[in-house]
Amino acid sequence: MEDTPIKYTQKEYEEAIAKSGEEKYILRLYITGITPKSTKAILNVKKICEESLKGRYELEVIDIYQQPVLAKDQQIIAAPTLIKKLPLPLRRIIGDMSDKERILVGLDLRPKK
């Protein structure tokens, strides 16, 4: 069986592009207390979200010291960890959140190079 490319009309293509710019992002950032590393991760993620997703995201910051059950449920093994719950697919980004390009790729806002 041969793979045939999916064909779209110009209108369908334009609607798909427009819809992709409206998707709401649901993000969770898991941190460990109010430390310089955690504070930096929060600031970096908020800045990236405001630049790339302004008005289209919800960011929940979860301190795993205060809410260990939430970290256990999500199998968080390192912090900071950013989880993109929506839009699918689910993604996890682990580290200090200072590499903007890595975060944009992880959020599916930029293609991998």
TrEMBL record:
InterPro entries (UniProt xref): KaiB-like, KaiB_domain, Thioredoxin-like_sf
Keywords: Isomerase
One Pfam family in the UniProt entry: KaiB
Biological processes annotated in GO: rhythmic process
Record-annotated KaiB domain positions: 28-109
A GO molecular function held by the record: isomerase activity
PANTHER family: CIRCADIAN CLOCK PROTEIN KAIB2 (PTHR41709:SF2), KAIB-LIKE PROTEIN 1 (PTHR41709)
Record-given protein name: Thiol-disulfide isomerase
Lineage: Archaea, Methanobacteriati, Methanobacteriota, Stenosarchaea group, Methanomicrobia
